[in-house]
Write a structure and sequence with these properties.
Low-confidence stretches: none
Structural class: alpha/beta
CATH class: Alpha Beta
Largest sheet: 5 strands, parallel
Order of helices and strands: EHEHEHEHEH
Mean pLDDT: 95
Shape: globular
CATH architecture: 3-Layer(aba) Sandwich
Strand content: 15-25%
Number of strands: 5
């Protein structure tokens, strides 16, 4: 099972260098639907943010592998952490080795990191 990352540990995860990563910044994949992004979204700060709705992950996995490699740090984000956990597990099963799920999703991010992000 893919590790859960509590938002209290996100900064440390984000700032820990990974010598096997193909790019310097870790990747956060927001797997929510476009309407959810319009409602509430995080701003990249020390990480690269990519929006890929959950249903598009299978057809975009080769592109992720080609762009970032399988050892690049990836955190998956959704509304509460359920869809992102499924995507994180899928990525792990597909050979990605540095994947975590952001526990609590954007709801927890709004409550614990940035209260300016609307709750929905």
């Amino acid at each position: 099972m893919t590790p859960q990352l509590d938002l209290s540990g996100f900064t440390e995860w984000r700032d820990t260098p990974n010598p096997n990563a193909s790019a310097s910044l870790p990747l956060v994949i927001d797997v929510r639907e476009p309407w959810e992004l319009q409602t509430a979204s995080v701003e990249p700060d020390g990480f690269t943010l990519v929006h890929i709705p959950m249903r598009e992950i299978p057809q975009r996995i080769a592109g992720l592998r080609d762009t970032y490699g399988t050892a690049h740090p990836i955190a998956c984000l959704c509304h509460h952490g359920m869809r992102s956990m499924q995507v994180a597990n899928y990525l792990t099963q597909s050979g990605f080795t540095e994947v975590v799920n952001l526990q609590g999703g954007i709801d927890a991010w709004s409550r614990q990191v940035d209260a300016a992000i609307p709750l929905y």
